[in-house]
């Protein structure tokens, strides 16, 4: 075994895979350019740290289970003039996560609610936060199943420990009493402990119908909205914007 091979094996044993991959080349460069020993070591360590950070961020994004990758940079604020870009960008600084505040995006289909929720979730992953994106109805089905096999407590513990839970599409389907109660438990567990981003097509005054019960709806709203940032997006659907443009042209 050559000395280079031996060093490579030692670095790998310490899980310093990037250093193992680049040190030979870097050592040659350093010798040529007469780089100091400290600078050489510094360069190797910087590369290893950068790669490790990258891997951990990618792992967090994978764990968050976003249905698609949508960024704030890719959001066209000029298409939703009623929405404050300043307020959304302020959220992207993530202070709301440290303060365990919630965010609600409310509006009709296609206005970018899920897009914004994902974009904020991605920022949180980049800041190495634990994030999970769920469709609200699917999550509640899972919680019902967890009640049956007696794993509800564990499941709620896991959900309570996340830095950010994104509940997408609340309100598309009315809920039965059991699901309404499970959603209440979830919101209560995270109240003042961890943030929820919620997207919904239903204005708050219709939540009684969503949960099938005014009392539980107001108990949920009370906790959810106590520390929260609410965005009502009422512009037109981005999904059909080209269609609208076409119609517009045809009419002229
Ligand atoms: P909603 O959740 O409100 O129904 P989505 O966030 O799923 O809407 O948006 C529908 C589609 O349109 C997505 O592909 C999304 O990326 C895109 N979209 C919506 N609004 C914008 C916007 N202002 N700029 C860029 N893309 C947008
Ligand atoms: Mg959506």
Bound molecules: adenosine-5'-diphosphate, magnesium ion
CATH topology of the largest domain: Rossmann fold
State the share of residues found in helices, binned by percent.
55-70%
Round the mean pLDDT to the nearest integer and report it: 95
Look at the structure and give the CATH class of the largest domain.
Alpha Beta
**Straight-line N-to-C gap:** 79 Å
CATH architecture of the largest domain: 3-Layer(aba) Sandwich
Element-level helix/strand string: HHHHHEHEHHEHEHHEH
Strand proportion, as a percent range, falls in: 5-15%
What is the radius of gyration?
24 Å
Q: Give start-end ranges of low-pLDDT stretches.
A: none
Secondary structure category = alpha/beta
Describe the structure.
The protein has helices spanning 3-13, 17-33, 37-64, 85-91, 95-98, 113-126, 136-148, 152-161, 177-190, 207-211, 214-226, 241-251, and strands at 102-106, 131-135, 164-170, 195-200, 228-232. The chain is α/β, with parallel strands linked by helices. The chain has two domains: 3-64, no CATH class; 77-239, Rossmann fold. Strands 2-3-4-1-5 form a five-stranded parallel beta sheet, with helices on both faces. Helix 9 links the parallel strand 3 and strand 4 (195-200). The model has no long low-confidence stretch (mean pLDDT 95). The structure holds adenosine-5'-diphosphate and magnesium ion. Magnesium ion binds next to helix 6 and strand 3.
């Amino acid at each position: 075994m050559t000395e280079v091979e031996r060093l490579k094996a030692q670095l790998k044993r310490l899980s310093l895979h990037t250093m193992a991959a680049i040190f030979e080349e870097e050592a040659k460069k350093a010798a040529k350019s007469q780089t100091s020993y400290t600078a050489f070591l510094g360069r190797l360590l910087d590369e290893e740290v950068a790669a490790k950070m990258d891997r951990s961020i990618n792992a967090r994004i994978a764990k968050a289970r976003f249905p698609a990758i949508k960024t704030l940079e890719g959001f066209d604020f000029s298409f939703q003039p009623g929405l404050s870009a300043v307020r959304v960008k302020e959220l992207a600084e993530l202070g709301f996560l440290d303060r365990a505040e919630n965010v609600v995006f409310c509006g009709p289909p296609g206005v970018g609610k899920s897009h914004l929720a994902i974009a904020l979730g991605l920022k949180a992953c980049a800041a190495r936060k634990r994030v999970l994106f769920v469709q609200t109805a699917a999550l509640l089905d899972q919680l019902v199943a967890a009640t049956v096999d007696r794993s509800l407590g564990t499941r709620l513990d896991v959900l309570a420990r996340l830095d950010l839970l994104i509940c997408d599409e609340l309100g598309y389907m009315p809920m039965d009493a059991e699901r309404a109660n499970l959603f209440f438990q979830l919101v209560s567990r995270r109240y003042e402990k961890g943030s929820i981003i919620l997207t919904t097509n239903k204005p708050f005054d219709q939540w009684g119908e969503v949960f099938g019960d005014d009392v539980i709806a107001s108990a949920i709203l009370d906790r959810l909205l106590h520390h929260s940032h609410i965005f009502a997006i009422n512009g037109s659907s981005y999904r059909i914007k080209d269609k609208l443009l076409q119609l517009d042209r045809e009419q002229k």
